[in-house]
Amino acid sequence: MTPNDTNNPLDIIFVPARTEKPLGTIVLLHGWGANNEDLGDLVPYFNLPEYQFLFPNGIFDHEFSDTGKMWYSFTGAGELTERSLTQLATSRAVLTDWIQSLPDSTGIPIDRTWIAGFSQGGAMTLEIGLDLPVAGLMVLSGYLHPRVEPPTDTPPVLVVHGTQDDVVSILAARESQQQLTEWGVDVEYQEFGMGHSIVPEVLDVVRKFVTKN
Description:
There is one protein chain. The chain is α/β, with parallel strands linked by helices. The protein contains 5 helices and 9 strands; from the N terminus they run E-E-H-E-E-E-H-E-H-E-E-H-E-H. The protein has a 7-stranded mixed β-sheet with strand order 1-3-2-6-7-8-9, with helices on both faces. It has a two-stranded antiparallel sheet with strand order 4-5. The radius of gyration is 16 Å and the shape is globular. The protein starts with 11 loop residues before the first strand and ends with a helix.
């Protein structure tokens, strides 16, 4: 079976492992205005051939792009409106249900599943992943949404960010690290001299994070 066999509204790109028995599942969430093809070309460079990769498409069409998707909308100032919060709640529910269903469709348990995301996808990674018994979370140039209650029994988290990021400030990453640490989350944090992007050194860090957890 493949992840698209499950009954969910997500459009999934599935990249199988290059081994008969995968060691785990890696879910990658794209950023605002991109789509599920955006990160697919990175699979060979992760150098994790024994893992299968899943790329879900954002639920909502992007306002300013014919091909882009999003998990929720922003205002021009990057603020969240009531519409944004409603979309965020929908994306949270759909992604959570889908990830919880993956063991049934892939045969790989949820504690051998990693969730990663870039930018808004990184924010969604923390939004859903902190409350799931997954193997780990990887936040690439992302940020943390405010929470009413702190999470409990959280998986380990990798936070990677560029010091020259002019889209999501490095301050957002540092604040995320501080808040996660205060909650007792096992956080690995690294900064790179890059902008809002993913450089080869980031992929090396991700690979090491996956293989040690």
